[in-house]
Amino acid sequence: MKALKWLLGIVAGxxxxxxxxxxVFFDLNSFKPQIVxxxxxxxxxxxxxxxxxxxxxxxxxxxxxxxxxxxxxxNFAPATFVEINExxxxxxxxxxxxxxxxxxxxxxxxxxxNMVTKKDGSTSLDGLSGExxxxxEPKTSSEPSSNKEPSSIxxxxxxxQIGGVSVxxxxxxxxxxxxxxxxxxxxxxxxxxEFSLGNAADFAYDFSAQMPDMTVGSNGEGKLTVxxxxxxxxIAGFTINTDVDGQSIPNKKLTTQxxxxxxxGLDTQSLQVVISKLSAMDINATGDIKVNYGSKIPKINxxxxxxxxxxxxxxxxxxxxxxxxxxxxxxSTEPAHEPDLxxxxxxxxxxxxxxxxxxxxxxxxxxxxxxxTVKDGIANLSxxxxxxxxxxxxxxxxxxxxxxxxxxxxxxxLSGVQFRPLLKDAxxxxxxxxxxxxxxxxxxxxxxxxxxxxxxxxxxxxxxADGSLYGVNIPQMIRSAQDKLKGDLSAQNExxxxxDFTSLTGSYSLKNSVFTNPDLAxxxxxxxxxxxxxxxxxxxxxxxxxxxxVVGSLSGQGGDSDPLAGVDIPLTIKGSMQDPKFGxxxxxxxxxxxxxxxxxxxxxxxxxLGGF
Length: 612
Known about the structure:
15% of the residues lie in helices and 50% in strands. The protein contains seven helices and 30 strands. The chain has helices at residues 2-25, 32-43, 131-135, 419-427, 449-455, 474-485, 586-608, and strands at 47-49, 54-56, 60-71, 80-92, 100-109, 112-117, 159-162, 165-176, 181-192, 195-196, 201-211, 214-226, 232-245, 253-265, 270-280, 283-292, 299-310, 348-360, 363-375, 378-388, 391-400, 407-418, 432-445, 457-470, 498-511, 514-523, 527-536, 541-550, 568-576, 580-584. The chain is elongated.
């Protein structure tokens, strides 16, 4: 027991001697000129310490710094590169003897950083990397080199405690004279409560930024825990609230909230972010992000689940949209270049996503499910499905970015989709109704927009059941033409422009921007329709030739057999896809009538000649 008292006495004596020496014989401020000269010799910059350097002692040892500034290079504005109003660091003295670090307080106030980029490309960082010192010849040693690895210093802490951390009034000014822009980032406050290894500590921040096209305000809070063996870091209940204002922001304002838990495993080199809430512009989501950064290419696994997404709400109002007719667009004379997809080689990403519904341009889809991967330069959409207009859609796709000119292939199927509302919402076209099934497979090379149309090769087939062809009433057209051939020019069209059918089928191909359908077939109770034609995607025009055969009474169910039954009548569809024009070849009707009269004449002659 006496030995312990003697040991404590010796330690206390040494501490007292150290304090007396530092306060009486060791003037910290006497080193200020040497520090200033050393910084100027190293960087060529003016270094100023306005306030006196001061010590603090028992029960904590620390140093107070204030009025510190480092200048920018000559002829830069602002003239100051870094300014610090006050910096304080206090460490409990006695726990250091047992490898325990107890920091009473760390505080930093009034840090200002002015980062300038001049028109000639020079920046505030020029000269700070020690070029002057590097130019000096290194000292040579007469001792032979050794192959032994340098010994590492391994300090193991028994404990780490921090009374608190406070960072206030920190400003970073990014001044770009080349582009005549200025961005200001302000950390109003960053605080950490009482902290120790293995225990949670409260922290909070308040941040703002002002950029040329937007302003950002953000604040957040959570609980930080560092394991005692320093291998795990956890941030629990991390809540981030952000407001963004700017002309380029949808509706000029965006408010978001993120609530998440973050787990960092330094020993396993892994990171997990669990998103319990993500909200922005009426969009809500949850998710789970896992990252394994131990390999050369980090492995990332993302699973996100979204609610209802209305992209139309994110679009600017019609009154704010640019009127294309009010200004002339100048076509770019620069040749288009293939996008650089080399970044795909640096990713190992697995993505899973579900969405309750998505609305865009009035097109509504529901119950999205998607699985995709990006690895070794290939993006692969392995599974996609969604419900739309009482039916469903499935798709697969692959993008190969390993070559300079990317290649791709895809498959898509629609099943049981109500075609009329889909066309009206997607393209504002009221042409066909019915329950539709579509299949398409395609492939191509190049992602330049013009080449996408030219190089895309695709083929597929479709069936539409129990529907109608809108904009034309084929039986009525034939009846009207018949009446006019008989001399009745007063025939009026009072019926709805619609042709009902029981089935509409065909196959199609796409090549050089031209959609071709060689085997269109439509069946209805009154007529049969067959034909072929094409549609040009570039010009948005259609050119179809159809052949119609009357199989029943054009007067409707129960009427007399039509004189045109069995006669093929050619129809045409020409014009734009938005407003196609339907026509009928009346000369065919005349030929059909003439054929009917000829048959009657033949019958009469046979009877008169005795039935030959």
